[in-house]
Amino acid sequence: MKDFKLICTACGKEYSIERVDPRCDDCNEPLEMELVKKGKIKQGNPLQHTILERYSDFFPFNEIRNDLSLNEGFTPLVSISRIAKRIGLKNLYFKNESQNPTWSFKDRGTLFGIQHAYSLGYKKVGAVSTGNMAVSVAAYGKRAGFDTFIFVGKNIPAEKLNPIAIYGAHLIRVDGDYGRLYYESLNIGRKQGIYFINSDVTYRVEGYKTAAFEMCEQLDFDVPDYVVVPTSAGGNVRGIYKGFLEFKEAGIIDRVPKIIVAQASGCSPIYNAFIEGKDKVERVENPDTIAHGIENPFPPSGNAVLKMLKENGGTCISVSDEEIIIAQKEMAEKGVFGQPESCVPLAAVKKLRQQGYLTENDRVACIVTGSGLKYTAAFEKHNLKSHTCKLEELNNFIKDNF
Ligand SMILES: *Cc1c(COP(=O)(O)O)cnc(C)c1O
Ligand SMILES: [Zn+2]
């Protein structure tokens, strides 16, 4: 590993780059790799690079194992001018993370977690999750030949269990309090040498920087004014922000976009703290939103995200399930079908434009975090239609009806 340090996001205490425990011994806040201030994008054909390779200057690994990769990242940045025009913005981009190997951005963080586990000589990895992270760690862990452990709650429905099980990892339904399971997994990991690549662990956040790096490249280094990120634990938004900061430090871009943290109103601990001007999140009781991937009632990076927003000057907003469903349909009709979480940014942008926070000349990028096919139950909210007609009548049916 290169000579970088890990630093506590709250108290600044320093730790070794090899540390696996993601939180500070003194204040229990998340640790972060120090800001990389120098580096270049690897020259050459991105089609022949993995994200580990292309941006290797910004990561601590001396030996890169490209065979751990499933060619995640390099996802499209789609411009949807008709939606932009309708809501009164100059440009609206959608970073379509559903085109990752397991159909969500989690793959970026999983790859870097796995690479770190390998660098330290681990043979076992794991995750506590019922959603996209479980799927991602199961896929990457198994592929890398690690003994891979996925802990889920006992009552997880089959439609969520099977997409994890298919990759062949050790999948364990745990009977007990799911909130405690996260902390227990870290204990078990320490005792049994399992590297848990959970929600906002240090190297997962590092991996998320690559989405920012790519957006810079995709826009010829003319970064958007705002980047909107649907936020739960807070790992993704921290990573994306850090990515822009590092490219700025390295002189690759000349400014850092303002970050908009978007939450669902049925579970918005970061938003609640933000509007009350607090610097600590409080647990939300009885979270309830259709966007289950952003339903963490007590986000482990919540305080770090509040601090980040203060430093960056961005904002935080929450939107209702109804607004999310409308946004999902609007995006799908322009060819980008995201899961409900992924439609929170567009709903947020519409609201912020109405409120006048965003103005006509702003260029805004929304992070579409995962695929709409991940949560087919949302179809029921849409009153979807089709037509029926006899084969002999089809010609006239088309002529008469459309
Ligand atoms: C995990 C996830 C999020 C939230 O990311 P955090 O890093 O937990 O803030 C948002 N959308 C989707 C689809 C996810 O899977
Ligand atoms: Zn600390």
Automatic annotation (TrEMBL):
According to the record, the signal peptide region is none
Q: Does the keyword Nucleotide-binding apply?
A: no
Please give the Gene Ontology molecular function terms for this protein: threonine synthase activity
Cofactors needed by this protein, per the record, are: pyridoxal 5'-phosphate
CDD domains attached to this UniProt entry: Thr-synth_1
Q: One short Pfam family name for this protein? A: PALP
Q: Which residues form the Tryptophan synthase beta chain-like PALP domain?
A: 69-370
Recorded superkingdom: Bacteria
Broad enzyme group? lyase
Keywords from UniProt, A to Z, are:
Amino-acid biosynthesis, Lyase, Pyridoxal phosphate, Threonine biosynthesis
Q: In which pathway does it act?
A: Amino-acid biosynthesis; L-threonine biosynthesis; L-threonine from L-aspartate: step 5/5
Reaction(s) this enzyme catalyzes, per UniProt: O-phospho-L-homoserine + H2O = L-threonine + phosphate
Question: What family does the Swiss-Prot or TrEMBL record give for this protein?
Answer: Belongs to the threonine synthase family.
Q: What does this protein do?
A: Catalyzes the gamma-elimination of phosphate from L-phosphohomoserine and the beta-addition of water to produce L-threonine.
Name this polypeptide is given = Threonine synthase
State the species of origin: Clostridium mobile
